[in-house]
Structures are given as C-alpha cells and as structure tokens.
Design brief:
34 strands, alpha+beta, eight-stranded mixed β-sheet, single chain, 922 residues, DNA_methylase_N4/N6, Rossmann fold
C-alpha cells in the first residue's frame, strides 16, 4: 500500500492539470500560478479593507491557502469559478415544494468525527435538503460553513452508497427515489455531485472545510511530513520516559500523565494537588477531608496556589495556576500500571524548546478568554500546553508549515490540527482516564491529562487513512470573510443555500478559534464575529443587524425562485425572532419550519436549563420576480394582496405525512399567511391594505379551505387524496402563552361548543397558568370574549352556530324553529364565533379598542411598563407604520421591557424597519 501510495503521489505530481481554462504541467504549477495572482490581490489595500478580512501577514495567508479552491482571505477567484460552472437562471425549475419532513441524523459518523469543531450539522442531514432542492452540477452556497459539511454533502450526492444510506433508492439511470407515503416510491432527484461555494469568517474553520472537501485517505497512508512526527518524538525520547514506581524499573514510555493544579486548605493552609485532596480509587469526590486538619471540604472551598513562570522570551514573567504531575499511567511488563509521579517525572517534563513556530499570542479580551484568565491565569496560547507537549507541537507544526505549499504538507497540517486539542492541557481527567476537552469553551480543568503524542497521532492517522470517503477540491470553493459582504460572488448565481448561522451568544467562535488560529498566525476578525457578547458590547441589536446584512447578501446571490434552508439552534425566543425577521426584511418569504434532531447534544445545550432538544429548520424562498415586477409595474395594492397569496400558496407544502398520519401545515393557516403578507408589504414600505379579518374573509372567497388550511384549486385534490388515505383530520396543538394564543384557544373551543362565560371560565383559567410570557399582561376572559366574539342575548333567532351545537347534543331541541322558546332559553348568553360576514365588524370594533389602549402606552411617562398587552402593541405598531409614524414605534418600544417586543416576530419586524427608516431619513 505504501509503495502504491508513493506511485500515486508521483503520478499526481507529473499529471497535467486544467483549472479555470488554464492547463498546467502539474498540480504544483497550478498552485504556483494562482498563488502569484493571490499575491497581487493581497498587495491591493482595497482588497485588504474588505469586511471580515482576517488578521495576518500576506505570507501567512498564502501558507494556509490553496488557490483558487481555498484562500485564507476573500477568494478573488469565485467569480471565475461561477462563470465556468454556474448555470443560467431557468424559471421552469422553480416549482418545488419546501422540504417539509422532520429530519433525524446522528453525529456519530466516520466523516463527522474526522475533525472536531464547536458545532456541525451532520452531512447526511444536509444531503436530504440538497437532493430535494437541486440538480447535479448546480451551485450550493453556505455562508457560515464551519467545517464545510455542506460541501461534503453536495459532493456525496453523487455517491450511490451514501445516497442509499439515507433510505433512498437509486435506479440504474441515476434517478433518486424516496417513499411516497402510500407504500410506494417516487422520483424526486437525480444522482450526481453538486458544486459548493463555502464561506466562513474563521480562517481555521475554512481551512478544515477546504481539507474535508479535498479528502483522500491515501494522503494519510504514506506522508513524509507525518512520518517526521515520529522523528521529533524520538529526538525528545528522554522526555517521555518514566522510571516506574519509586524509580525501581528501567525507564519506559508513559501512556499518559495526570497533572493537577495545586490548592491550599482554607483552614490550615496545607498545600496539596487537587488530585491529592479529592481523588480516591480514580474517582474525584465531591466532598473530602483535608489530610492535615481533617476539615471537610469541597473544591470550591480550596484556595488556588499561584506560581510565576518565564514567558517564551526567557525574561518576561507570567502568573498562572501552579500545576504538577501527580500520577503516571504506563505499560510495565505487559501490564498497565498507575503510580505516583516522582521528581524524575517532573524533570523529564521540562525539555529545552527548539522551535520558532511556537506562537507568542495573547488571548483577546472576551467572554471565554476571561474565564480562562480568571480560572487558571492563562493569558497566552502557549500556556495551554505542558512544556513537553509545547515543544513537540511546535516542532511538528513547523515541519508542516515549511511544506504547506505541497499537498503532503497541507494534509499533515490537517491531521495535526485535529490532534492539537488532545495534546493540550484542555484534556480533562475523568474516571481515571482522559475524556476530551469541554466543547464550546476554552476551559482548562484542574485535573489534566497529558497523552503520549505518538499514541494520539497514530490513532488519528489510522482514522484518516481508513475513512471510506473521497472528495475533490475541484467541486468546492472556500472563501474567508464576512457574510455581510460577499463582494467576490456575483448576483443571482446560486441555485440553493443551506446555512447554519451562529446561535446568538451560545458559542463565541472568534475567541474559541484563536486557540488554533494563533498557530496559523492568521486569525478571525473578531469585531465582525456575528455573536452576542457583553464583553465586546455586542447585543441583540448588533446580532440582528449583522444577521440581516448577511441575509441581504444571501438574497442577492440566490437565483430568483430558489430556496434557502436555515438550520438554527437557540434557547432564546428573541434570537429566534431576530433570525426570522432578518430573513423577511431581506426579502425571503418563509414557507415552512421543521425540526432537525442531531441526536447528540453539546455541553452548553445539556447544561442550559432552557435548552431545546431539536434544532429548527426554516425553509424560505426568494420570489421569482413575477410578483415583484407586477407590483413595480403599477399593479393595484389590493390585487397585489391576492397575487401574493397565490404566489405564496404555490410554494407551500401541500401535505405533511408522518407515520401514515396527515399533519397540520401551519404555514397554510390564514393568520400565518396574513403575517407573511404583512412582512412583504412592510419590506416594500407599503401600507397593508387589509385587516386580518378582511384578509381571512378574502381568502375564504378565493381559495378552497380544508381543515382550516387554504390551498390553490390545483392543490386541493392532492390534499383531499392524502387526507382520505390518512382517515382522520390533522390535529392542531394549541399552547397558550399569550393573549393571541388564548384567543385562538377560545375560538377553537367555541367553534365546537358555543358556551356561556360560566362554562368556559374554569378551563380557560387552567390554560393560562404556567408558561405565560413574562411581560405579557394576562387578559380577563370577559375582555377576550367581548373583543373577539359575539354573545347571543336571547333577542331574535338563535344564530346558526349555536343552533347546530344544541340540536346535535340535545334531542329535544332538534327540528325546532330558530326562535322556538325552548331553543332560545338554552342558547341565551352563549358566546360563539362570528361568521365571516360579521367577523370584519368585530375586528374593527376590537381594533378601535386596542388603539385606544395603545394611546395610553404612547402617553406613558416615567419608569418602563412592567406588563403590556402584545395585541395592543401589534395593533398600535401596525397603525403607526401605516401612517409612517416610525418615531412612535421606537418611542413606545423604549417604554416597555425589551424582551416584550424582541420575542415577538411582528413587533420586532416593525421596530427594526422603523429604525431603518429613521436612520435613512437622517
């Protein structure tokens, strides 16, 4: 195998290569040509001023890059790649429904596990979306690409085995089939690789993405750079020796060393390692006795002992938590032994450093870095390693960087970067062994595990060389820069977008990636990092605005009529709403929200009490131009309302089947369609011409309704067929947490059972208990009834809604005239849902009352209101927007708790757009 690998490598070096219309003698000539072109771009000050441009010298950026496929800066070759491989816009391919099914894919896959990162979406999950929305050869974009799983997924859409692993069938002519919900199979896609354009703000993430998308296991079977790692270990051999228990055996190589921070007892100042205080039989105890004074202690009671160490320059000093080796694990006479560390082991851990590639890099000011400084006193990256590990990593990294212009060097760097955390002090001790670093943090534990590097790297090399996975750099292009400025990508060129944006404040990517990027000497532009971070004064407004600008760019580069899928995991409603509002402000129209279960949860998710088990996936589309053109060409506003409704209904899933049961499609609800229509009109700075009730009445006149969902005439037969096969209507789940959902619950109840106040009140009271929104004023049932429904007072004929209910449930009331005394007596004081003809009048009456109350909010002076009615704010903001009174929206928002309007999609949209209009006005 090794001989064959060398032959393949020699062949690759001699084979001619064609790239972007140029023919080269070999791949190295290709890289040399495009590297020179990249140098010319880097010499241009305007190129370096691009938002999100990384921190680093020209030479360091070039060392990381493999142009034109990957550049550790904005990729100036993307336009050429799009021109060569992109396809012209074809409106005939737009007729595709959103991918409406929920997806569940685990993370424990050999490809997924090759290289760790703070967060990833499993490539198998992304494949389902790409197969649904695209054809072979089309361009897929991911602007927050992380490790490039979207690119991997795009390429594997051409791998028959990978597609079949999804539960799909592949025919002999390349058609991809999926279950049709009726026991059969339907063709929905075509086998074939798609091309990916990937972007990330982090040079480190983009480097991983570039390597995932140019992966060949043969590169790791025989690699002269990786072979040199063993040479470095051999040169440091004395440092990895241990003398055994009490120095009684011949020195042997350890498997790993347990290091412990040193603490003192608060009662007697006795000093010992945390290991000595708290570990017994390999387990760390929550409570333990001081060996000296016998005081019962917990870790939090102990006082950390500090020491002064020399910095890399040999003169400057640094203060850090004192640590020492406390236990050795080694194989002695064929058996694994554990024994206390000795002075011999401490001396062996301090070798002389030779490498110049050890970064003298101070962690930036931030949330995660502050925790490390305050905890272990670590302020620089090199302090994350024991002296012995630092020496080895420095030598190995230097060898990789010196050959980064070669494929072998880049592959060795990829492998080493996957192991560097395992070789650091971030490796935790648990249950007697190492348990990996704590994901999503820079946490340095008090009990650390230093592993023998040859064991780590051998394991990694086996993992990489045995991966049953190949990908080609020719099918993926990687860019480093801010998603808010994708200047190197042309307009209307992408066929599909899948993206996984940052999760508010849960992960501080720029700070976390600094640990690796310091070694590359090319770092993230942290001011452009799209996160919430109180240390950097990045609040929800910053996050929302950055996300909005990012979606503006996504909208610009996506072809009309095509789809974007946004995968998102967050526990805060305000951040979830910021994402949705930003998408709609950018012009996207949301068509579906589904769930993505990644099966394995991160540390932050597991320990956060408000965590969610499933990520949410938003499917949205860019209007195909017809609706926009007709509106701009002078189509009346009223006609545009129904033009929008028809266009939108065409994009929505007709049905959703799960386990043979037809489910409700929330986006087909009349009020949800109204919300999308309002967002579209607000974005176009046009007053909404209809009230919700008028819009709902118009929908009922123009479109077929089934199970409280609206369809186009061409869609309803398909839904009826699915509904008939399922045998039961879809069930709607109503969770009451604010006034709007309380109204919905009352409406659902009264539709099936017109009731008196006394009959309704007990159950209503139970419904508005736990789970109510924090700043939402709880309404009285009487107020909800009076503002939204009608009451029969016994005057005139009994309304049809009440008559149907009474005659169906009381035999003696059947076949009576509507003014029969017995029927009137039973119907008196019952509340009921008005029919569409009267609904508009009820709506107007209600809106008048809401606007009257809104005036009290506008006139309020003094402290912020603690509780408000969101329905009042919605009506007031809508009226102010219609009157172009943007200042009122902003002023009233300042009088109420931020959470109240930030956690409501409509209020956040009005507020965000009002601020934009005010800023534009000067």
């Amino acid at each position: 195998m090794a001989t064959q690998s060398r032959m393949d490598l020699a062949k690759a070096k001699s084979e001619k290569v064609t790239c972007l219309g140029h023919e080269f003698e070999n791949d190295e000539a290709r890289r040399e040509h495009f590297t020179q072109r990249l140098r010319e771009h880097l010499a241009d000050p305007s190129f370096r001023s691009t938002p999100g441009f990384p921190q680093g010298s020209d030479e360091d950026i070039i060392k990381m890059s493999d142009p034109p496929y990957y550049t550790a800066c904005p990729n100036p070759f993307i336009a050429e790649i799009v021109a060569e491989h992109g396809k012209p816009y074809d409106g005939s391919v737009d007729m595709v429904e959103p991918f409406a099914a929920d997806v569940s894919e685990g993370k424990n896959h050999p490809i997924y596990n090759l290289h760790s990162y703070h967060t990833k979406v499993p490539h198998k999950a992304i494949m389902r979306y790409i197969l649904h929305y695209t054809k072979p050869g089309e361009l897929v974009f991911d602007g927050f690409c992380g490790t490039g799983m979207t690119g991997v997924a795009a390429q594997l859409c051409g791998d028959t085995t990978a597609v079949r692993e999804l539960g799909y069938k592949v025919s002999t002519d390349g058609e991809v089939l999926r279950p049709d919900g009726e026991g059969g199979w339907e063709v929905f896609s075509q086998l074939g690789a798609r091309r990916a354009i990937l972007n990330d703000l982090s040079p480190y993430a983009a480097f991983i993405a570039s390597q995932y998308n140019s992966f060949d296991p043969d590169d790791y079977q025989e690699n002269e750079i990786i072979d040199r790692f063993s040479q470095f270990i051999e040169e440091m051999h004395p440092s990895y020796l241990t003398a055994g228990p009490n120095g009684m055996s011949d020195p042997t190589t350890f498997s790993y060393v347990i290091w412990s921070e040193v603490f003192s007892c608060p009662s007697c100042q006795f000093e010992d390692s945390l290991f000595g205080f708290s570990v017994s039989d390999g387990d760390m105890k929550d409570k333990f006795d001081c060996p000296n004074c016998k005081s019962t202690l917990k870790k939090g009671d102990l006082e950390r002992v500090w020491e002064t160490v020399l910095d890399l320059d040999g003169t400057t000093t640094l203060k850090e938590a004192k640590t020492k080796p406390v236990e050795i694990v080694a194989s002695l006479n064929g058996k694994t032994k554990r024994y206390p560390a000795t002075q011999y082991d401490l001396d062996a851990s301090q070798p002389k450093r030779n490498s110049v590639e050890i970064p003298d890099a101070e962690f930036p000011h931030g949330r995660q870095t502050r925790k490390v400084r305050n905890g272990s006193g670590i302020s620089k990256v090199h302090q994350m390693f024991t002296p012995r590990a630092l020496t080895f990593v420095g030598d190995a990294w230097s060898a990789c960087l010196s050959e980064s212009g070669t494929r072998a060097g880049r592959k060795a760097l990829f492998l080493l970067s996957s192991a560097i955390t395992l070789l650091s002090r971030r490796e935790r001790y648990r249950d007697g062994t190492g348990k990996g670093a704590q994901s999503g943090t820079l946490y340095v534990p008090s009990l650390q595990v230093e592993k023998f590097p040859e064991d780590v790297l051998d394991r990694k090399q086996r993992q990489f060389s045995r991966a049953l996975f190949n990908s080609s750099e020719e099918l993926s292009t990687v860019n480093v820069g801010s998603h808010t400025n994708l200047a190197t990508i042309p307009d209307n060129c992408m066929d599909y977008i899948f993206t996984d944006p940052p999760f508010g404040e849960s992960l501080q990517y720029g700070e976390l990636n600094f640990f690796h990027e310091a070694w590359f000497r090319v770092g993230t532009s942290i001011p452009d990092d799209c996160v919430m971070n109180y240390v950097h004064e990045k609040d929800l407004d910053f996050y929302g605005e950055t996300i909005r600008k990012s979606f503006n760019e996504a909208y610009r580069i996506l072809k009309p009529g095509r789809w974007i899928t946004v995968e998102f995991s967050n526990t805060q409603a305000s951040v979830w709403n910021a994402i949705q509002v930003a998408m709609q402000q950018s012009g996207f129209i949301i068509a579906n929200v589904a769930a993505l279960d990644k099966k394995q949860r991160s540390f932050n998710s597991v320990t956060t009490t408000t965590s969610v088990k499933q990520d949410l996936v938003i499917s949205a589309y860019k209007p195909n131009g017809g609706l926009e053109d007709r509106f701009l060409q002078g189509q009346s506003v009223d006609d545009t309302v129904w033009d929008f409704a028809r266009t939108h209904l065409k994009k929505l899933p007709v049905s959703k089947i799960r386990n043979g049961v037809v489910e409700n499609v929330p986006e087909r609800d009349a009020r949800r369609i109204f919300d999308r229509m309002v967002a579209w009109f607000v974005r176009h700075n046009t007053p909404v011409p209809l009230s919700s009730a008028e819009f709902q009445a118009g929908l009922a006149e123009r479109f077929p309704e089934r199970d409280e969902m609206f369809f186009l005439p061409s869609q309803v037969d398909e839904y009826d067929k699915k509904r008939l096969q399922a045998g039961s209507p879809p069930q709607r789940e109503l969770f009451v947490d604010d006034e709007r959902t309380a109204i919905d619950w009352v409406a659902e109840h009264l539709k099936s059972k017109p009731s008196t106040y006394q009959e309704l009140h007990p159950e209503f009271t139970q419904r508005i208990g736990a789970g109510w929104r924090k700043h939402e004023e709880k309404p009285e049932l009487s107020q909800i009834l009076e503002e939204n429904f009608l009451n029969y007072d016994g005057t005139g004929p009994v309304p049809a809604q009440i008559h149907r209910y009474l005659s169906s449930n009381w035999k003696e009331l059947r076949n009576l005239e509507k003014d029969a005394p017995a029927l009137v007596a039973k119907a008196r004081n019952r509340w009921y849902v008005p029919d569409p003809n009267k609904q508009a009048d009820v709506e107007k009456r209600r809106e008048k009352a809401l606007l009257k109350e809104f005036e009290t909010y506008r006139a309020h002076r003094g402290r912020k209101l603690k509780e408000v009615r969101l329905e009042v704010l919605r009506a007031g903001f809508k009226a102010a927007w219609t009157e172009r009174d943007y200042q009122t929206i902003v002023d009233v928002a300042n009088k109420i708790p931020e959470d109240a309007w930030q956690e409501d999609e409509r209020l956040l949209m009005y507020h965000s757009m009002a601020e934009t209009r005010l800023e534009a006005a000067g």
